[in-house]
């Protein structure tokens, strides 16, 4: 259910963004002159004044806000004022809009509000006349088109620069922080020049291409603490939101300055020798994560395949084992195809990448929830043996009939191969999802290859021991413990997935000051992440309760049958 909601929200967000962009473009195209834009703003200001007189303070504030953002900024009036007349005039007019929005909530000030509306209206009309008289200045529609083309060009150049960032290399963390400083300064400059979108994009560049991609974030988390990472991440978000929402310049400047100070302080601590625990360093490294993920996922698939083969051998059907191996091969190929598809889906960068990571984590959460419940239901030896026997006997029966007739039909091959294919493909698909998340965070393909190959070697050894010796893995404890661990992962992924959506600005995020961060548990100081984890925990506990109730019922029935 959470996956459906997340996907729906993601789709709705994209549609809303597209509609907003279309609205902005059409708002400029609908005005023939800058005076026409001013008149449209005047009308909304007058509507706000009327609402205020009738006692509708919230409606008045909404009208004044709409006058500023839906027309003044959307139709590029403010941008043109800033570029052609000056930043002082632009700041004066935006401040007047802000004053009206504040005054709207103060009752009994009709004369004062009317004076402010009259002053701003006269200012806008005079400014519009000056703009229309400028022969070098394009009309609203043409100006909007030129600005869109220029923005696209700048973003293309910015994307080209992003690709040149190959990693931290031999630079110190202080040097990395120093490289981020001019990017953040440029972000503020762009915002001060009236281009909030460009400013927010530069802030994203500093975050995704430096703080996250170069490992600044992960090192701060390991050496300083998760709380600090959450504070810095929220500071990045404050900077973006200030520029996207048109907050006063002094506030945006403070957000940027505070962020630069935080980055420099953390960089100095990292360069000063802040130590990371060895075990923690291994587990949080790409090598350790790739190793552990493949061991966990591969061991489950290995147990299923080994059990099926053991049953075939024990039941005198050794001749069909080759089809089981064929299914394993097909499962590996299918997992490879899934890996290619995910590689294409994760080709984005910045917020898009973050949102994809969030959706991916929620998909993994849903898969883990189902798998942990499945494993809990197989946590007794009797249930496991019954599962393997039921799955295998029907396939063997059809295969045996074909063998007696000296024919090996496609149905025979498929029925036997499907047994091992489903086991390997499911675990392989999960591994691909987890590996994609690891790579998107670490960008360390070499480390992942080392961890993955090491895990594969261990799995092959374990399989050979199970297949050709008397070594047995205790099924009951294995599935019970693994089910509990996977249930914990469900809760962790729920928090991590929603947190990634917040980082990608797909969710606004209600930050809780002072609440601790624990990246290991996917616990972050946001209302949305905490609610997601509570819901996931409730789902896990409910499934555990149902699973144990079923097991108790089966045991009771078995006891009655033996009497």
From TrEMBL:
Its main location: membrane. Residues 1-20 form the signal peptide. Belongs to the oxidase-dependent Fe transporter (OFeT) (TC 9.A.10.1) family. It is a multi-pass membrane protein. Residues 148-170 are annotated as: Disordered. GO terms for molecular function: ferrous iron transmembrane transporter activity. This is Iron permease. It is found in: Membrane. The lineage of its organism: Bacteria, Bacillati, Actinomycetota, Actinomycetes, Bifidobacteriales. Coiled coil: none annotated. It holds the Pfam family FTR1. The chain crosses the membrane at residues 290-313, 325-349, 355-376, 413-435, 447-466, 478-502, 530-549. Keywords: Membrane, Signal, Transmembrane, Transmembrane helix. InterPro entries: FTR1/Fip1/EfeU (IPR004923). PANTHER family: IRON TRANSPORTER FTH1 (PTHR31632), PLASMA MEMBRANE IRON PERMEASE (PTHR31632:SF2). One of its GO terms (cellular component) is high-affinity iron permease complex.
